[in-house]
Amino acid sequence: MNLNMNRPDIAIPTRAPAATTADDTIMPFEVAALDLRGRVVRLGPAVDDILTRHEYPPPVAKLLGEAVVLAIMLGSALKMDGRFILQTQTDGPVRMLVVDFTTPGKMRACARFDAAGVAAAIASGQAGGGALLGRGHLAMTIDQGADMNRYQGLVALEGGGLEEAAHEYFLRSEQIPTRVRLAVAEELRAGNGGPRHRWRAGGILLQFLPKGLERARQPDLDPGDAPESAQIHTVTEDDAWTQGRAVMSTVEDIELIDPAVSSEQLTYRLFHEPGVRVFRSAPVHAECSCSRASVEAMLRSFSQDDRDHMVENGKISVTCEFCSSAHVFAPAEVADAVASPDPAT
């Protein structure tokens, strides 16, 4: 639906942007006059469920929430059934973030962190995303199934946050002019028994996709140790992308997470002058793929000796890192089958 009220030359029906927000959704949009496309992600109960299951320290929860939004924005662009896996491995207090997005809209996520390191970062006032991540890499993997090859892209993390890493990835790997904004915060609301904290998250991605690829050209990467006399390749930035990038710089965190600001209202505020067309939103939800059967199969993949070493107090307990569900087995339930004696012997 086109939300532009000032373009009578366009035959697409117009209407006012929706006044109410729709949580746990991905809304694609297009600014045809500027050759821009994008997606808005709004998360409420889904991200709250993921973050509250583990009782992460607030800075860790915020960082994982940003990773969830980024994974949804990128994974929802897949044109086939499959999984998009975003994972960081770094030397900072938050050693690992993992987000598993399965098309069309199922996600799970978890974080590994050093509690003492996070506490020290909070005490020193250095608990931003870049400081918690430190240095390492961000991997983005597309898994299309057992019979298909995996595709993986890597980008270095050098003390910056996830927004910066996303920009670097698109610059180096996809070579598509791209801007990303991520926001995560706790919402405090009154309720029975006192105030309740709930996590909210949101994000917007904008890309410049002109029909003529020449218009999307970007300057070469930093030449590094090239001689001072070397000629640096420069490209004049397209006016349409200059405008789109400038508009993205005005997006504030509160606009991405405020329940009173719908995704349609946000895109209309940003692009009402050139005209913006929004498409049907797709739902997302938090759901772990673990099950008792899958955990049992995993245990049976180990040797009997390994399983024997897993026994504590007469049982084998496995807790899912994603959803914190505990699966308990008696050793006999996952023991190797004992072959029956051959009656002929």
What is the secondary structure topology, with strand pairs?
Blueprint lengths: L24 E7 L4 E8 L1 H10 L3 H18 L7 E8 L3 E9 L3 E8 L1 H9 L5 H5 L1 E9 L7 E8 L3 H13 L3 E12 L6 E13 L30 H10 L4 H5 L5 H9 L5 E2 L3 E2 L1 E2 L5 H9 L3 H7 L5 E4 L6 E4 L16
Parallel strand pairs: 5-12
Antiparallel strand pairs: 1-2, 1-10, 1-11, 2-9, 3-4, 3-6, 4-5, 6-7, 8-9, 13-14
What are the defining features of this structure?
Hsp33 domain; about 30% helix; alpha+beta; six-stranded antiparallel β-sheet; about 350 residues; 2 domains; CBS domain Like
Descriptive report:
Helix content is 28%, strand content 28%. The protein is of the alpha+beta class and 345 residues long. The strands form three sheets. Strands 1, 2, 8, 9, 10 and 11 form a six-stranded antiparallel sheet that branches. A six-stranded mixed sheet has the order 7-6-3-4-5-12. The chain has a two-stranded antiparallel sheet with strand order 13-14. The mean pLDDT is 87.
